[in-house]
Every structure is written in C-alpha cells, then in structure tokens.
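[worker-b] picked up task from shared queue
[worker-b] task type: protein-ligand structure
[worker-b] ligand name resolved to magnesium ion; SMILES cross-checked against name lookup, match
[worker-b] sequence length check passed
[worker-b] input payload:
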Amino acid sequence: MFVTDLALTDFRSYENVVLSLEPGVTAFVGQNGQGKTNLVESIAYLSTFSSHRVAGDAALVRAGAARAVVQAKVQRDERPTLLELEIVAGRANRARLNRSPVRPRELLGQLRTVLFAPEDLALVKGDPDGRRRFCDDLLTLLGPRMAGVRTDYERVVKQRNALLKTAAAARRAGSAGDIRTLDVWDAKAAATGAQLLAARVRLLRDLRPHVQHSYEQVSSGQSLAELTYRASVNNDADEPLPEDELTRPDVVEAALLEAMGRLRSREIERGVSLVGPHRDDVELVLGGLPAKGYASHGESWSYALALRLASYQLLTTEGSWDGDGEPVLILDDVFAELDSRRRDRLAELVSPAQQVLITAAVAEDVPAALTGARLDVAEGTVSRAD
Ligand SMILES: Nc1ncnc2c1ncn2[C@@H]1O[C@H](COP(=O)(O)OP(=O)(O)O)[C@@H](O)[C@H]1O
Ligand SMILES: [Mg+2]
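[worker-b] inference finished, payload out:
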C-alpha cells in the first residue's frame, strides 16, 4: 500500500498543507525545525494513533488551535481509501472513512506503517515500557481488535490500582476493606491481561526468525539475535510457565489469578498491581548476552533496526490480511545516526519497499541507493525540488 495524498490542518506547525505522494522513495529535505518530522509523524499517527515523540496528543494540535485534522488517501490493491482523523487534545478523536463517520478504531488497519527513528535506540537501551509499546503497536497493526484489549486492560489496571490504594487506606485505619470488589477486579485484570500477554508471546514467536535474519543482514555479524518474553507472572512462581504455555490465554489467566492471590498483601501494601503484562519485558539477547548493558552502540543500532525491519517483513508476509498488507516505511532522520556500513545496508534493505518516506537535514544524508522524489521543507512549506 502507499499514501497518494496528505492534507494537514492545524497539525503541529502546519496551519494548512496539502501534498501528493508517489510510490517508491520520497525524501523530505530541510534544515532542523522546518517541519519534516511533523509531516511523517502525521502519517504514522493515522496508522497507529500514537506518536514516536509524545505520549499524549496535545502537542499534535497546532499551538492556539482547537483541533488538528489529518487526511490521507491510501492506495491498496488498486482501491483508494480516504482516511480522516480529527484530533482534539484530551478528548476522543473523531474519524471518517471514505467520508462516512466511523469509530476511530475502524481506521486502524487501513493504513499500515513502520517507522524508524533515532528514538528506536531506546528499544534496546531503554526501559521495558518502550519494548512493551513496540509489541502492542505491532499487534494493533496486525489485528486492530487488539487496540480494544489494550485499552480495556489499561483501564482495568487503573481501576484496580485505585482499589488497592483504598484497601491500603482501610487497612491503615484498621478495617478489612472491601475485598470482594477486589476479587472482581482481579478476575477482569486476569482475563484481559491474559489475552494481551498471550498475543504478545505469539507475536514474539512469529517475529523471532525475522529478527534473527534482519540482524544478520544489517550487521553481517556472527552474533545471534534472540528475544525472550519475561512475564512478571513467572516471578517467584513455583512452576514458571514455558513460552508455549504463555501463548494460551486460559493458562495465563489462571496463572495471573494465582499470582494475584499470592501477592495480594504486598499489592495492598504498595497500592499498585504487581503482576500482569504491564510489568513484563522483552529481553533482547545478542550472542548469549543481554543487549541492554552489553551491546556496543553500533550493535544496539543494528538490533533496533532489526526490530523495525522484522516488523516490516512480518506485516508484509502475514497471511490473515485481505490483500496488500505491505506497510509504508518511514525513516525519520535515521541515516545521520548510522555509520556508513549500516547506512548502506539499511538503504539496500528498504529500497524494494512499495513506499519509503525519508526525512533528512541534507540531501547527502540520503544514501544513493534510495533515489526517488525529493521535497524541500522550509518554514512549513513543502515544494518539489526538481
Ligand atoms: N503543536 C505545535 N504547534 C506549533 N508548532 C509546533 C507544534 N509542535 C511542534 N511545532 C514546531 O514544529 C517545529 C519542529 O518541526 P519538526 O517537524 O520536528 O522539524 P524537523 O524538520 O527538524 O523534523 C518546531 O519549530 C516546533 O516548534
Ligand atoms: Mg525531524
């Protein structure tokens, strides 16, 4: 699939911009702060409802404006689809699909993107939440239904934490608190948490060969890149569940309930939910050692690139999609971060993709293997360079 048209209204620095795009490579070139990332961020946001730069959506709305609108026309299997999303800070988004109002969630899956950015290094070097988000964003692209499971689970954990805090206060005041309500929330957290957790483990299993292969391709190194799901439900468990069992929601649900029972006193003491997918991690291993803390800067970059390339391959090859599932590739300022070998490798690997959108401060940062259209971005205006 590829994006043929993009229109932004009050998105980030853009009051109004309209552009047409072509399949193949397009490079957005311009000095820092001119609005290159803002353009590609809007496309990625339309596909995942999340930004690689900010957690909330307030910063996406142009300062002083009430709402931002992103419109894109996507070509897939010869069929054009028009996606429109209205972003109102702190409120629910509004969406239209081919001009008919729909629930925003129905846009998910219409446009698939994989974005590479300097922030990806944190996937390897940073905290577990980045790796969890990586899994969950990819799950959402593979099957939009997961978006619902994800928000349900977040809501349940929030409510459960509030209840644990109330129970803690009750305990301090010398009363028993309302334990029965807590049981209800344990059950909800275990049921939705198990779905999310099992889906992540299945995802990792599917992703693993692609990651290994991609790592070999970018690094031309001998080290084997492996990933292991670290489930908090297995911490201090008498019989930790092996990976196969973790792919079964029913088994995971029972294990989560058991763990919550075991940890109840500690959870009330701390006032937070201590077990579940929100406390899990994905361990990235390189040549038998954890990448985090052991891998060199270059190796960490190779690993981060391998995760994104593997996502691209999985989305492209994954069967359940009706038709052309190949995502649009977005490379936001990544080439400047890489040494020349990794830069050339990456260029070679992404060049066959149906659509590649690149941002770079100077044209020289775009490897020669990626010839295509060039758009100059300066002070919020976008113009053809040729
Ligand atoms: N919500 C917003 N309202 C107005 N301007 C914004 C908003 N968010 C970002 N900007 C401006 O956008 C510019 C950065 O654009 P960006 O696309 O990141 O630049 P680059 O070309 O370096 O990728 C900055 O000048 C920033 O102040
Ligand atoms: Mg930028």
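[worker-b] attaching auto-annotations
[worker-b] DSSP finds ten helices and 15 strands in the chain.
[worker-b] releasing lock
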